[in-house]
Amino acid sequence: MSLKSQLYWKSALLRSGFAPSRAMIYGSCAVGRRYVSETSAAKNTAAGAVPPVFDAQNRRLFPQLDQMQPPSSVAYLKTLSKKELLSLAVIGCVTINKLFLELAIKVFPFVPMFLVKWLISSLYCGGDNFAEVRECGRSLQKRGISNMMLSLTIEDAEGTKNIDINHIVDETIKSIHEVLKPNILAQLETATDVNDIAPGYIALKPSALVSNPGQALLHFKDKAWKSHRDQLVTNCSAITQVIYDLNQELLKKYPSRKTPFFVSTIDAEKYDLQKGGVYELQRLLFKKFNPKDSPIVSCIGTWQLYLTDSASELQAEYARAEEEGYKLGVKLVRGAYIHSEAKRDTIIQPTKEASDLNYNNVMTTVIENLLEKGSKSSYGHLVVASHNYHSQMLATNLLKKKGLQSGKSNVVLAQLLGMADNVTYDLIKNHDAKNIIKYVPWGPPLETKDYLLRRLQENGDAVRADNGLPLLKSILKSLFSSTTEAKNV
Ligand SMILES: Cc1cc2nc3c(=O)[nH]c(=O)nc-3n(C[C@H](O)[C@H](O)[C@H](O)COP(=O)(O)OP(=O)(O)OC[C@H]3O[C@@H](n4cnc5c(N)ncnc54)[C@H](O)[C@@H]3O)c2cc1C
Prior knowledge:
The chain is an alpha/beta fold. It has helices spanning 3-15, 22-25, 41-47, 56-61, 74-77, 82-94, 98-107, 113-124, 130-142, 165-190, 213-218, 226-253, 271-289, 310-324, 344-347, 352-373, 389-401, 421-431, 445-458, 460-466, 468-488; strands at residues 147-152, 200-204, 262-266, 299-304, 328-333, 379-385, 411-416, 436-442.
């Protein structure tokens, strides 16, 4: 790492109040000072202690953040139709306690497809054809969400389904032309500021784009697996090339645009696959599609901040990008595989609070760099992919501090379709966020059913906290208050 990069990271982290250890600056350890105990999450919760999730700098800048509660769902629920409220009430019932949730997870594969589609899919999935997904985009626009991160959900992480990978590539490219392009063009034509519209994203799951994905990613750098590596790079490049070409074309028409029109996004997989191949894959794509002199990037990768080495991984990538003359594109997530990572004790932060602190610190560093350096930043673009209200408010306040909540900042806030809608609603209505998108899975009904099941399994605790009894109470409140309002009209 060059001296310039070392100094940059050291001063950026110190500025954000995050005191890094020497090991961190030089790349062997992820987090320097911890503000939380290193006991297990369970022990922490039992103790009832709520350690701060913001570091000293952010607490000084935004003293109210530590105390802020996520907004109530009632205001958002009032905007929904009776049918949507009924679907949510069903979800509220099955997630009412851990026992019910576990039962729902077991029964879910046997629920008939028509019932899944009618009751649940429409809340969490964009549809199974382009017309339905375009319609989903239009209904999101009515809620103030200008764009989507599309994910064609045909997955084969275990390599057992024998799926047609060429079909995935073709359908994904078609979805750019048939959904994302008309969605953004219609808005650009009538926009007062072309930067008020967030980019349209394509999410690419590496394990869905190569045969024998587990082994192919683990052995990505082995000569013996070169044909698999080539297959994966070719597939991701084919999709990203379409995005790159469209970005260049639209930039000529809308030269005042500061952010990409379209972005290809590499999703993060389990730790071994990240280390084995996904980080390297992202790097190859950044080099090809995010040249330093281009005003906008076309590709972003993902870092999982629940990993103890995530900050140092990103730091090393930043240094490499600076030295080799390309831009990183960054999507920050906490990480989805906490329950299935084999080496959880060694690779994942010891507590939820440590994950939160790492997430907020790294996010602050990236945003401050983008705000300070603008188009000269080696971070080309950031997606804050989280349902966590505190993280989203921190990002929003950092942008507001510079008077920049629009797309000019190259910072976009993202949540999954159907999740944390109260947070999305609050950011739009009360904080004027225009830089906001939803991750929209779409595809064959059976595959989206698998996606829904995975969401329940991976995010079970969050689903239960967001839904269950609190959701049922909010639905009742929203029904009651809308009836009262109707009577008063
Ligand atoms: C747009 C979008 C794209 C996404 N893409 C990806 C992706 O490519 N790859 C991926 O892996 N995930 C992805 N996710 C999922 C994401 O990683 C999280 O699982 C999910 O969003 C929940 O985290 P949260 O930030 O919303 O916040 P919260 O609900 O505040 O945090 C929950 C998360 O905290 C962490 N956590 C919980 N308990 C502990 C503990 N005891 N110790 C340490 N950490 C703990 C876990 O990561 C858990 O998922 C994506 C999410 C979104 C919204």
